[in-house]
Amino acid sequence: MVGAVLLALTLGLVTAVNPILGIGAFAGLAALVAFARSGAVAVCTFTALTYGDIITEYTGPALSPLKLAGGALILLAAVSLALHRRRATSGIAGDPVAELLANQSPGWRQHPLTVALVVGFVAWALSSAAWATDLAQVKTLTMRLVTDALVFLAVPVFVRSTSHLRMLGWTALAGGTLSALYGMVAHANLAGRSIGTFTDPNEFAAALVPAMAFGLPLAESSNSVLARWAGRFGVAICLAGVLASGSRGGLLAMLVAFTLVLLGSRGRERVRLTGWTCMAIACGAAWLVLTPAGSMVAARLSDHDSSGRAELWTVAVRELKSEPLHGVGLGNYPVVSKYFVDGLANQDLFLRDARTTHSTPLELLAELGIVGITLYYAFIAACISAGIRATRLARRLDDLRLAAAARGMVAGILAAISATFFLSNQYQELTWVLCGACIAAYTVARRQAALVDARALLEGDLVDEPG
What is the pLDDT of residues 286-343, one digit of tens each? Predict the structure, then answer.
């Protein structure tokens, strides 16, 4: 009681001196209490904040809500793991069902190779400080990679059921929908391209597509008519946002997402999804052809101008050729690019304003070499594999709700990866959350399968007992 009074007085004094800081401290404290009560809420809150990039413009990057939520999520995951190790399981020996329910260890413990790959990737990025020109860039981006990796490990700690996975998917769809709606209502754009709650149209589109891919299977597998229509509305708004962004990578990712969602569906759901997809494509094409805004976007998409990407990619290839094994160092592509511009028409592009490659594969190759890109995509492939296995296992268990969530995550990751061919976005937090969710989905599916087997075994033992 005394502690609560002192805390309230402290918050009051801080608010009196600096209202913004006081309100932020109160909101952070309230969020921490909510996170402690439900780790799944913490994961969903972090996911929702990945769509609030514009908030950083007001808070500054050091104290952005996303960073604070990520730190709280990681801290609570560490505490949860520590408590799990000390949790007693006495009194359940001999009861296979109770033993199974008591075993709630995080899913990544069953995926040592995946953990080894992500640790290896982060370690390789950090080791690039040994040959990088700018050590500060390596330090800054390594810290971001470490945070992303810890978030990936934290997600399976808290996401432990089908309802948690579906809640995460609905959160992503809601975040994408609200971001796109903000762009429409506030006319948030950059050079005529919608940016929603982001600062870059390509990043905006790259965030909307995974939300669509994850949310659409959830909506169509819902038993509630209201939920199905709400999901369709959200997907339609996100589709409009992607089109308004004029992002080539976003359109490619959207095609990948819709294709994967359709191929992964079954029965009546496939029929419904095919109909809605055809309608969405028709509406999108009509908007591009018949409206002034759509005509501007169509003109940009059909323009052969690469927005400087050709030169950026040429420099990346030259950097790769100079150091094919280990690259030039994490974050050092823009630092050393000025030494690889001979013969390029737009040399000022690198001398005046250093940029990223606008292509994640090329940036990884240029900065971390063949070793770095192999570790990164092997990690992504391992997570996708876990999601695919979760989908298959859920279908064998006839758990269509879990299967829909798992295949939505797989489609979301592949869509996000497709968008990165035209965007340097390997640090996008949403992708790392989805990777962790794939591990969680496989753990949930395995636990349900083991629970069914344990119950069958128990019933068999009971049947075999003498009358």
Answer: 877 777 766 776 776 666 555 667 888 888 899 999 999 999 999 998 888 888 878 7
Cα-Cα end-to-end distance for the chain: 59
C-alpha 365/C-alpha 142 separation (Å) is 16
Residue 200 identity? D
Q: Is residue 71 part of a domain?
A: yes
Among candidate residues 320, 244, 255, 253, the one with its CA nearest the CA of residue 281: 255
On whether residue 168 sits in a domain, the answer given is yes
The candidate with the shortest Cα–Cα distance to 389, out of 407, 411, 412, is 407
Specify whether the backbone of 305 is left (phi greater than 0), alpha (psi in -120 to 50) or beta.
Answer: beta
Q: What's the Cα-to-Cα distance from 256 to each of 2, 90, 253, 412, 413, rounded to whole Å? A: 57, 49, 5, 9, 10
Number of domains in the chain: 1
pTM: 0.85
Rounded Cα distance between 270 and 277, Å, is: 10
Helix (H, G, I), strand (E, B) or coil at 451: helix
Structure tokens belonging to residue 21: 């800081």
The reply to whether 132 falls in a domain is yes
- Quote the domain boundaries for residue 128: 24-83+110-451
**353 belongs to a structural domain:** yes
